[in-house]
Amino acid sequence: MAAYIGTPTSRIDGHAKVTGAAKYAAEFNAPGLAHASLVTSTITKGRIAKIDASEAMRVAGVIDVITHKNRPTMASRDKAYKDDVAAEGSPYRPLYDDEIKFNGQPVAVVVAADADIARFAASLVRVEYIEDPFVTDLLEQRDTAHEVERPSRPRGDAEAAFAAAEVRHEADYFIPTEYHNPMELFATTVTWEGDGKLTVYDKTQGVQNVQRYLVSVFGMKPDDLKVVSPYVGGAFGSGLRPQFQVALAVIAARALERSVRLVLTRPQMYGLSYRPATIEHLALGAKALGPLEAVMHEAIAQTSEYEDFNRNDVAWADQLYKCGNTRYSHKLAKLDVSTPSDMRAPGAASGVYALECAMDELAVALKMDPLQLRFVTYSDREQNADRPYSSKKLRECYRQGAAAFGWEKRNPEPRSMRDGSELVGWGMATGVWEALQMPLTVRIVMTANGHAEVSSATSDIGTGTYTIMAQVAADMLGLPIDNVSIKLGDSTLSESPVEGGSWLAASVANSIATTAEAIRKTLLGVTKTMPDSPLADAKPKDVMLADGKIVSKKDASRAIPIADVMRAGKLDRIDQKAAAPVKDDGKYARNTHSAVFVEVRVDEQIGVIRVTRVVSAAAAGRILNTKTAHSQLLGGVVWGIGMALHEETLTDHRFGRIMNANLGEYHMPVNADIYDINCFFVDEPDATINPMGIKGVGEIGIVGVAAAIANAVYHATGKRVRDLPITIDKLRRD
Amino acid sequence: MVRTIEATRPISESIPTPPKIKVSLKINGDLKQLQIAPWTSLLDLLRDTLDLTGTKKGCDHGQCGACTVLVDGRRVNSCLTLAVMKDGSEVTTIEGLMADGKLHALQQAFIDHDAFQCGYCTPGQICSAAGLLAEGKAHTAEEIRELMSGNICRCGAYPNIVAAIQQAMSAMGGNS
Fold it and tell me: Is B58's CB within 8 Å of A59's CB?
């Protein structure tokens, strides 16, 4: 039955979100709630010499000032601080000791009866430091970078093939540090439940990850702390690891034995995680008619002094382009900054940006249409492990995208198209991401009155988890969607990984199907005990649940209402918990793909760039909800526009301090920046990847968009800007 | 626990916080007599004191629009508005938009068009759109985009927001 799967069902949490009823982490209350405000380091590296909190403590209404000197006990071993998503290294420990590792690191927590007073008192805390020399500039530290081991082995002899190639392109591309900047401020409300028990309302993409982290850092019993997060005001990867506000709020609650709320300011969020600044070096060699002879891709990214964060930036050409000679390398430069993290399509957003700009430049060198170059180099096999794809409808994305855009009308000559005072440019690029599934357990409680509660400790960060869970459960249990309620974002629910990497839809939907199957078997078992059962000889695979009945797939007249079955079995409720098996024997590559076509208009006099038209065609397996999945693609495109034209973190390297740590000066797209965006999915059935054929859509939308824009800007202006964002000044430089 | 901070707090030397001021505000139709510190923003008053948490804090600096509410029918950033300045005013928040248990046309249109994802900027977007409709200045999609640009949506739902506002405009019989 698919009454709901594949339809544009509106979000089931929509009503709560448009009425203000949806409660986010900072919006839970408790009797005697105290408010915390942070003091953060103004130096980049060194030690705290002295903290003078005497003036702050004199402010009427201040309850306490907590520092590394007077905090409650915390674990002393690194291992205790390693969460599920931790990078290799030694995790930062909030308020642990006097050491300063990055600018903006919390050094004191001021707690007061109300938030205004806490904020005021925090401004009165005096901190003296002993400052050490530091480095924060990736470009300056490029030569200090160390190689990270990556699984993508070299093939052939890329250097020799590149040297011998008839046409070559080689260049550096640059992606600056970018911040997730979810609209919700990072916040935690800890409620003191007595006897040291805590309920922690946190902004997170993984309640169980945060729960385990806190229990281990504070040496608590697992039953004494639960983490709750029913709504998350955006995250995009920033909520995968426990962030410092949650540890600090728990420190304050435990120190004072009362409920505490801590809301970070927007500037303080620039001390959390981010997409790392990365230099991408590309070298492509080709024969005169296009086939690729050599691909070399080296990434040099920044990380912190204490952790090595890295993702796959470099090996994406293996998914996309046929080439026998490849060499990939990923290096990290250690800087005195906080550790970077996953940010929407981590690795791919940066690496594929560079790869797809380089492909465009190669096409120019070859005097070939860039789309034609994609067809000439198209690979039907993932080359590193030399295996087929579970499905790969990228050709369809190219064809349908190009048709929707009108690509065949493109004049290949740069600066050849114009409209009034604006130069018009058309560019395209490819996107690619992984299609993963993770172990996840779903619990379904079905009651005799025809209601089902479906739960798992996962999260909905705006991706639409609530809604797809309800759709899948309604179809699998044969119930109207209004009879299904969803519970998530609570660490006491059944096991779920963090929500990230586009793996949640496949993981949760297949587990709902598995659990529903267990319910069906239970019901069928009961029917066998019923006199004159029309399903007496039916096997589990022969029946389904539909319209409130258990019914034969072959003969719809052979059916029994579920309520009757449950009554016959004297069952008030059926309670099942199951996880879909995660099978990956490595025989197939599992990926989503997209083709992105962009029109830009560049004011010839002033240089203002507008992205007036985007067509994004994606192949991402079975789409559970055409409305919310479309929104994911759309959001990804908007992110790509920000990445291409707006987003950039500016650090004053003399001080190691970010200069634009706010939403006024860290530019992100606003409504007026967004014109016509046409996103759609091409049909991509996939019987291999998982039983439901789901691939996930959270990341694919952004990948390739910045490259398509950069390529369009080149086509409009004849100017190639390789360091993002593409701003007016860069169009003017020599 | 060892407390090593040297500060103690002699009551006589405490630094006073500003005295509270009497303010009356009509919030979502309810007249409220309040004692408010002069440094308290309208946003913090709504969220922390009155538990009207539908109004969101995204930057506290007037840069994102998440805190948009209607004051005497005009859209304002409540984070940049000191509550004491609005003595005698009428404030409408997202919690006050429904009438007779029915969603406002904008609220319904936002659901229909999936004009949000995480939902955090949504109350501000909807209040801002309500203010926009009352202003009567927006006639085209381009004008809506321009006049809604004080409200950032990081999820990138902008085209859906424009479509939702257009739907509500026609449902409400024009734009003024």
Answer: no
